[in-house]
């Protein structure tokens, strides 16, 4: 194969009707494309066969996870340049794989370069085909295990000492650990936690929120997770902090909690796993577990509304490699379902830019500790996390997705909320809520 890079560049530009925004370096050592641009390294011809057999995002993701392709240079810049070709194209402008002659010509040209071998097997990190109803207890346990049970040591390298896997709350300067502490304290103040209050932390992760609420606000906390690895480390951290009399960690589905009422509920970065078919049930269950006048803090990633919501499709890479069965909903839809369950929404705060900053710190941690991270999990899994966190940071920065804290109240029988007249007093200092 002589000068594969030039052949691939010409083929791609003819199909796209525009210049490629990155250079290509092929397996034969040849290069083509704009000088000084990030380099898409195609290490093996197998990468092209992945695209032939699974055109689009999933084929590219398989090639990335398997190490068949890589980026030389700034990954953020490379993904930003490629976004218009891969993710930001209007569906009406996309080529149809059967009807569009450009797509057929591209496939024929790729076949001549790639060779007529059978499709390569997907990388082992990919979730196998699933069947049956979405978001049953069993299927949710499997999905959570895929994402979270990849090694506590791996997550400690990426997340840092705070072990908080959700958007931090940044002030001017400061470390990731300080920003995560400020986020946890913001949640506690929005919930107006007081000494002896019962807090249910839904999706408690490695116990950071439960520990903070107990140590700094005197709450009695029940934390629940479906991840056994998370629960084991969370219990150890609680014991090391001397808080076993105030914090209980359970491996339990939110649908099976029956020991309410609670004074407050925190759900931080968990509701994305619930799914549209179960979201009203989720809202109903949390409402039933709160005492009248109790508060819910729902911290959740949101997508932008689609012109045709029925046409919405889950991201193929995220579903196959990151969050199986995970779904993002528009903010308005989430608010509507919470209100239909009986909640009164009292405050919504967007933390979109904060999540972009958080993700960039996580990516930096992963890159800094790359060899250790690979040993803690696998090369493919580490590559999955690097790609998804980098792409997610760009999505938050470009306002393609957001993240919001919704503070809601279960009203008392006479309609009372117990909220202060100055709705955002919690932003001033601890104890003002």
UniProtKB/TrEMBL annotation:
Swiss-Prot/TrEMBL keywords: Lipid metabolism, Methyltransferase, S-adenosyl-L-methionine, Transferase
Region (Disordered), start-end ranges: 118-142
Gene Ontology biological process terms, A to Z: lipid biosynthetic process; methylation
Pfam families the record matches: CMAS (PF02353)
Signal peptide positions (record): none
InterPro entries with a match to the protein in the record: CFA/CMAS (IPR050723), CMAS (IPR003333), MeTfrase_dom (IPR020803), SAM-dependent_MTases_sf (IPR029063)
Molecular function GO labels: methyltransferase activity
Domain Polyketide synthase-like methyltransferase: residue ranges: 154-395
Basic residues bias locations: 130-140
Family: Belongs to the CFA/CMAS family.
Protein name: SAM-dependent methyltransferase
């Amino acid at each position: 194969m002589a000068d594969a890079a030039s052949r691939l560049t010409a083929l791609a530009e003819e199909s796209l009707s525009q210049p490629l925004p990155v250079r290509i370096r092929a397996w034969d050592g040849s290069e083509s494309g704009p000088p000084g641009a990030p380099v898409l390294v195609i290490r093996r011809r197998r990468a092209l066969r992945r695209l032939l057999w699974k055109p689009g995002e999933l084929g590219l993701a398989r090639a990335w996870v398997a190490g068949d392709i890589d980026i030389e240079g700034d990954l953020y810049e490379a993904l930003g340049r490629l976004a218009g070709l891969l993710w930001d194209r209007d569906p009406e402008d996309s080529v149809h794989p059967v009807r569009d002659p450009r797509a057929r010509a591209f496939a024929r040209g790729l076949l001549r370069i790639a060779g007529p071998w059978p499709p390569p097997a997907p990388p082992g990190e990919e979730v196998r085909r699933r069947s049956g109803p979405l978001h049953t207890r069993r299927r949710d346990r499997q999905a959570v295990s895929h994402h979270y049970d990849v090694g506590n040591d791996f997550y400690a390298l990426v997340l840092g000492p705070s072990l908080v896997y959700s958007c931090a709350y940044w002030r001017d300067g400061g470390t990731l650990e300080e920003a995560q502490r400020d986020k946890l304290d913001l949640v506690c103040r929005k919930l107006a936690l007081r000494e002896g209050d019962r807090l249910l932390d839904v999706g408690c992760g490695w116990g950071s929120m439960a520990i903070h609420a107990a140590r700094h606000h005197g709450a009695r906390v029940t934390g629940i997770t479906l991840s056994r690895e998370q629960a084991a480390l969370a219990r150890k951290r609680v014991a090391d902090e001397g808080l076993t009399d105030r914090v209980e960690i359970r491996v339990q589905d939110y649908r099976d909690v029956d020991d309410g009422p609670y004074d407050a509920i925190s759900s931080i970065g968990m509701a994305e796993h619930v799914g549209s078919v179960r979201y009203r049930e989720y809202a109903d269950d949390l409402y039933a577990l709160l005492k009248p006048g109790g508060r819910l803090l729902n911290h959740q990633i949101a997508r932008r509304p689609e012109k045709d919501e029925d046409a919405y499709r889950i991201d193929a890479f995220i579903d196959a490699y990151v969050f199986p069965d995970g779904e993002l909903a528009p903010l308005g839809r989430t608010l509507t379902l919470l209100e239909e369950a009986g909640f009164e929404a009292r405050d919504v705060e967007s933390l979109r830019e904060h999540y972009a900053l958080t993700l960039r710190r996580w990516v930096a941690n992963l890159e800094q500790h790359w060899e250790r991270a690979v040993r803690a999990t696998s090369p493919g899994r580490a590559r999955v996390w690097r790609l998804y966190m980098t792409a997610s940071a760009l999505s938050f920065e470009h306002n393609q997705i957001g993240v919001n804290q919704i503070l809601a109240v279960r009203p008392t029988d006479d309609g009372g909320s117990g909220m202060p007249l100055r709705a955002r007093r919690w932003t001033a200092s601890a104890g003002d809520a």
